Amino acid sequence: MTMTTTIAHEKASRPMRIGILVQKYSTLAVLIVLFLAFAIGTDRFFTGTNLVNILQQISMLTIVAVGLTFGFAAKEMDLSVGYVVGLAGLLAPLLMVAGVPIPLAIMGALGAGLGVGLINSALVVGVGVPSLIATLAAGSILWGINFMISGGRAIYGGIPAEYLALGQGKVAGILPYPALIMLIIVAGSWFVMERTTFGRYLYAVGGNARAAELSGIKVRTYRVYGLALSSLFAAISGIILSARLGSGQPNGGETYLLDGLAAVFIGMTMLRPGTATVMGTFFGALLIGIMNNGLNLVGMDTYVQSIVKGIIIVIAVSVVSRTTKLKLL
Amino acid sequence: MTMTTTIAHEKASRPMRIGILVQKYSTLAVLIVLFLAFAIGTDRFFTGTNLVNILQQISMLTIVAVGLTFGFAAKEMDLSVGYVVGLAGLLAPLLMVAGVPIPLAIMGALGAGLGVGLINSALVVGVGVPSLIATLAAGSILWGINFMISGGRAIYGGIPAEYLALGQGKVAGILPYPALIMLIIVAGSWFVMERTTFGRYLYAVGGNARAAELSGIKVRTYRVYGLALSSLFAAISGIILSARLGSGQPNGGETYLLDGLAAVFIGMTMLRPGTATVMGTFFGALLIGIMNNGLNLVGMDTYVQSIVKGIIIVIAVSVVSRTTKLKLL
Amino acid sequence: MSIVLDNITKQWPGTLALDGVSIEIVEGRVHGIVGENGAGKTTLVSILSGAVQPTAGTLNMARQPVAFENPAAAVANGVSLVSQEGSLVPHLTGAENICLGFEPVKSRFFINRREVQRQAENLAKQWFPETMIALDRKVDELPYADQKVIEILRALHSRPKVLILDEPTATLPAKEKQSLWTLIRQLSDAGMAVVLISHFLQEVIDLCDEITVLQDGRRVSHLSNVEHDVSERQLIDLMLNRGQAGNQDRLLDGALKERNLADGAEIVVDIKGWQGARFLMDGLEVRSGEIVGLIGLTGSGHFEFAQSLFEPSLATAGEYRFKSKDVGRASVRDMKRRGAALIPDHRMINAMIGDWTVRENMSMAGIQETSLRPFGVVQNGRERAETQRLIKRLNIKTSSTETKIVELSGGNKQKVSVAKWQFASEGKYKLFVFLEPTEGVDVGAKREIHDLILSLAERGAAVIVASSDLLEVAHVADRVVAFRNGHAADQIARRDFSEAVFINAIAGVTQ
Amino acid sequence: AKPVKIGWVQGNAAFQAEQRTQDGFKKYLTDNNIDDWEVTYLDSAGSAEKVANNIEDAVNRGVDVIYVTYADLRASSNALKGAESAHIPVYTVDSGWIPGSTADITTNNWQMSAEVSLSLISQMKGKGNLIIITTDKIKPVRERTDTLRAILKEYPDIKVIGEYNFDVANFYQETLNAVQDFGTRYGEEIDAVWTPWDEPAQAAITALQGAGLNVPVSGMDGHPEAIKAICEPNSMFVATGRQQFEEWGVNLATYAKRVMVDGDHPKEVTNGKDIVYYGATLFTKDNCK
Ligand SMILES: Nc1ncnc2c1ncn2[C@@H]1O[C@H](COP(=O)(O)OP(=O)(O)OP(=O)(O)O)[C@@H](O)[C@H]1O
Ligand SMILES: Nc1ncnc2c1ncn2[C@@H]1O[C@H](COP(=O)(O)OP(=O)(O)OP(=O)(O)O)[C@@H](O)[C@H]1O
Ligand SMILES: [Mg+2]
Ligand SMILES: [Mg+2]
């Protein structure tokens, strides 16, 4: 009987392995096809400057999306990230305009982001409010706070040049700081999630909270980590955004929520279908960034771009969906 | 010993009943408290005109949210509703301006909405794309379409007065048509969901797809219904919106997604915690509407309003969350 | 009318669940299906009820071939299933669940709610007159036994010609069980065909007109006219008789040797008046090297008690000293740190992460041991090597350390669940609590898991085994505690082990 | 005098013009020692429907005067009927006049765009490649863009090599990315960039700087930051149109005072005009001294 099992197993395994390959790489394949198409279709695409540009353009989005990934890993969804981007992006300039030294201003903005994450997790983990509702409400509150502290106006002027360099400067005249920070964050987050016990435990909590608990993992603590990191990363993104824009915008981060979710969802279809991974999210953001940049270079109309982007996403995800049952939440 | 078990059970049931009461009615209690507070706090609130006004103001949102409720009942989430509102709200005026008779124009807009719902469900039920991704992508596509067909401009002029009456007229000079249509839709949907086999099966599919299947219910068909109705209702809302605004707005419905989700989520905390119900959603929308209107009448600043609204939602939901484990998706 | 399943074969990915099985279901008769865990019983009735499609073979109804593409088709043809796992829609009431799919309607679409309630109550009154169930409450607020009764009523609601009951009594208290027995007799008297799957062999013998015995997906025998002359022993022989293999697993009255416990072995578990919502244990001492079996009917509290040894927060009162230290209300984490380990039941729900690999699942509880401090950097090489070592040690059949856990068979999954507590932690754990250690595990793997349990004890751990498989408990345990209705009722020494003793202990005096 | 209750419906509170109009309004109150007026600000966050709802709530609240600023009134015709029957005057800024509203104060956007666009074209010496950044979603912006297109018909040597239509919610980032991509695509071929207001102009300049390009860029509105940028030596920002946002705030306050305190007829305060046009003054590097 054991024999039979093994043989039947061997038989089953070949199409299955191909299936796994398709699962892991179909969205990636779409990304590569797109890349090649643009590289061939327009001669300005595949140049050093443009590739660096793409990295810069996706950097804030990617950082938010990586934050969301930590939340998703612990099966928590954070709808407040867009407003945390706004909050941090306002606070840092406001503090600096008020004369606070740059490092302290940055710490203040990061601290505020972390604070939001901790309040969210007190509600979610402590009280038991579902994260979707808690963070939706937090978003409403933060929107009000952002407009209140800024009086609704963008904060211009009085921001030190060193701070602006964070968003507008380049390392060795080539790699923009935002892109550099993003690459460091992606690499670091990848390492933490894939190579440390912290990441392993976070994934375990999201994968099967009961199994994690019975294995002695502090499930509640890790859910807090997931939500706190999600807010903290949004705050990092907000700081870079304000440095890049040279101003604090009260509604600066609002589009990051939906785009960030899109990046995470696309990422969840690759590498480990159904699981949010840092690399998956990065590729998701890259897909979005390459679409935006490439279609701009081709000279496609904004509206048509939006349609084409939707279609590309559907196609990329359809391939996996046919072979795997994806559950996103 | 059987005795002991039974007694333990009986004992447990009294606090449980109170628990259930709290679960069912805590959010409702917040709604009532709020209502009373406004009625006492400002003399303009508890007047016939204002109450009618509230109904009118929430009517479009409620219709979208009821549509979302059908989707949620079948455990599908539709992120494209806001853009379907926009699509229908543009198509009907465009068709009328082009000389199409009113009923046909309305049918056209409804048909387009239904069409979107069917495409969504083909992707979700047919191909297996998770509804979150399929409808996110659909949203991107529809956004492009809406701006393309309108050239980004609102459609004004040439809309027949009879059509406008749909959004601006009043029955017997008292009840605005949008409010009437909403009340009919809420009552009808409540009836369908609670009193017909259709609703029972939709809930069964969302509650336990396997049990539904074993009872001979066509699970796939009902998932299609859920997504199709969600889009169809968004289209109805879009038609009323364009009649009320006297124009087709390309981005007319964008705020309905998050507000609609908020209404559904709040609703999911009452009556049957964890389940989206038509009445729950209606009360959720009512809570949002009463907050908006009441805080406006009190003269509270928009920013503070947003903060207060977030806090009220958190409080309302916290009470239930402490007693029940809510799972929204 | 009769249904004939002819030469049915079912190949799951990796498992041949049924291998050319034929049976005939005849009206007015009760047809019992028995066999070990994983013999293919559930698969067979799933095919009969349209939930699963056979790989080969045909179904004939009244001599006409039929195909049940889905459960709806089977129900339409008069075949209703009460499934093993339980499937109710949680937020509907009992009455609504009973009528699900067959709601009485007014003007075609509108549910006649009063009629739903009335029909449900009538059915309940008719078939379970002794039982009071609040049919107007949502089912997820009802006790488990009530839910089972509701499932049975739901199956009866469509007035089936064939009623299939897959282990219906496993979770029923005595009174409802009595009602169910009466019900089965009445139904067959009224001309209905009943298919009964049960592990309570005496029950099967008493109720069934004919019995099919399955073993490893094959029909090994068929008793066509069961009179009371068939004994449980004979049936067990038929179920287990697999030629050479597996004989030593059988329960042989009086032939059991006591194992010698070292004198003065450390007392690992020391309990007094330990009480939770569903169990009460007056006192228990378990020493290092000792294996204590816990048996009882489902719902009798032995699982909850066993679980509470690892999760003390499940208890509400009493004293629990672990290695001579008071446990208080220690968390799972604390218990783990002090040296307790749990191998839970329903492993895919409680122990495993489905889309993780064997390696990741294996290292879940002990990965920090092979990681670099202070940041907990995972050392892939060491993790893999340790996994490899345990795969060999426990003879786990997997193509590699990177195979997804869901691709393993139940037995190998279970071995991973045990191996988890030895990952870089050899000898660290002094108490192992096993719940249903061989749930859904085939015979070969079952033996290996039993050997593993024995070896843990030999190396000085205290072991608790809570299981509904009596043969298993008899095989591994040094003594057995039987639970009845939440109470630890009897202790049975190894020399007194016999199936009759066990069954008497868990069922009390036959009612 | 009795305190005046004002309901101020904002099209989008995040617009800088909104803030400057408020500043003018508040300055008027301070200058005239008025401290008892009760103003409620209601933001519509860019939604035409919220504008209508906010007007209705203001009417229900029983305010004395309603202001609507930087919105599109045409979707609120029904709400305005309510105000009319409650005899509440509705003064609007840059929101388009429609029946039911009392009067609209606005810049002549065609005039402003004509001056700014011609200034940019003269920087290009009437020829070369132009990039247009715009959005279809704001009425005054459409008027500005249409004016530009009309003028370009007379300049066959100017070629529009790229256009980008941004989403208002994310205009800064989108402009930044789009101009960056145009820089990649056309590089030195770009001769000028036209943008619909000052902040997109700033974004375009940031992107052009990043691409190492130096071409003239125009904005509109004339916010202080833009004026400062234009006057910086060697900056790419060459032209904007100064609108009189503060002045309009003063006007709004004056109207309310005359109607509610002095008892003038609501129509009288604008001399019977439905639309009060203000000219915008062109601001270029020449105006810096
Ligand atoms: N969905 C499935 N996919 C793969 N294998 C399955 C599936 N369902 C059952 N099997 C396998 O088929 C075999 C027969 O299982 P089945 O559930 O029919 O056994 P059973 O006799 O009902 O056992 P038990 O007494 O434990 O209920 C087992 O090896 C089981 O692991
Ligand atoms: N996704 C899969 N891929 C490959 N083989 C599978 C898969 N699912 C099940 N199997 C095979 O089916 C058999 C039984 O699986 P099943 O999950 O039913 O086990 P089980 O004994 O019921 O265990 P459990 O109680 O953990 O569910 C195993 O032999 C396994 O190899
Ligand atoms: Mg079974
Ligand atoms: Mg199983």
Account of the 3D structure:
- The complex is a heterotetramer, with two copies of chain A (about 325 residues), one copy of chain C (about 500 residues) and one copy of chain D (about 290 residues).
- Chain A has 13 helices and two strands, in the order ααααααββααααααα.
- Chain A has helices spanning about 1-40, 50-75, 80-95, 100-125, 130-150, 160-170, 175-195, 195-205, 210-215, 220-245, 255-270, 280-300, 300-325, and strands at about 170, 175.
- In chain A, helix 1 runs parallel beside helix 12 (about 280-300), helix 2 (about 50-75) runs parallel beside helix 7 and helix 7 crosses helix 8.
- Chain A is globular.
- Chain C contains 17 helices and 24 strands.
- A six-stranded mixed β-sheet of chain C has the order 6-9-10-3-11-12, sandwiched between helices. In chain C, strands 18-21-22-15-23-24 form a six-stranded mixed β-sheet, sandwiched between helices. A four-stranded antiparallel β-sheet of chain C has the order 2-1-4-5, with helices on one face.
- In chain C, helix 4 crosses helix 5.
- Helix content of chain D is about 40%, strand content about 20%.
- A six-stranded parallel β-sheet of chain D has the order 2-1-3-4-5-11, sandwiched between helices. In chain D, strands 7-6-8-9-10-12 form a six-stranded mixed β-sheet, with helices on both faces.
- In chain D, strand 8, helix 7 (about 200-210) and strand 9 (about 215-220) form a beta-alpha-beta unit.
- The radius of gyration of chain D is 20 Å and the shape is elongated.
- The model of chain D has no long low-confidence stretch (mean pLDDT about 90).
- Classes of the chains: A mainly alpha (about 325), C alpha/beta (about 500), D alpha/beta (about 290).
- Chains in contact: A-B, A-C, A-D, B-C, B-D.
- One adenosine-5'-triphosphate (ATP) binds near residues 37, 39 and 440 of chain C.
- Chain C: GO terms for molecular function: ATP binding; ATP hydrolysis activity.
- Chain C: InterPro entries: AAA+_ATPase, ABC_carbohydrate_import_ATPase, ABC_transporter-like_ATP-bd, P-loop_NTPase.
- Chain C: Pfam families: ABC_tran.
